[in-house]
Write a structure and sequence with these properties.
The structure is a single chain. The protein has 86 residues and is of the alpha+beta class. It has a single domain, classed as 2-Layer Sandwich (Nucleotidyltransferase, domain 5), CATH 3.30.420. Helices cover 40% and strands 12% of the residues. It contains four helices and three strands, in the order E-H-H-H-E-E-H. It has a three-stranded mixed β-sheet. Strand 2 and strand 3 form a beta hairpin. The radius of gyration is 16 Å and the shape is elongated.
């Protein structure tokens, strides 16, 4: 594959479990991923937790399911089709 651009952690465990993120990232330096242990332990979504010199980014991104559900409800109640970009 030649590496990746980013590894993204999201949802409950991905957003809140630094030990799980650390375990997953262990040994992934072959993909250009280098975790910043201090940032991983202290950051919350939305954040980059890779060291600055990492060739690829490691991101924590909030899922925001509530926003998606709200868009769907508004579309149903308003009789409009929902779109993933609106």
């Amino acid at each position: 594959m030649g590496g990746i651009d980013a590894l993204i952690f999201t949802a409950g465990i991905g957003e809140h479990a630094s030990a799980v993120r650390q375990s997953i990232c262990a040994g992934l330096d072959c993909l250009g991923l280098e975790l910043d242990a201090a940032a991983n332990a202290s950051r919350r979504p939305d954040a980059d937790i890779a060291i600055e010199a990492s060739r690829a980014r490691i991101l924590i991104v909030a899922t925001r399911e509530d926003v998606t559900m709200l868009r769907e409800v508004v579309a149903v109640l308003g009789g409009q089709e929902s779109s993933p970009t609106s």
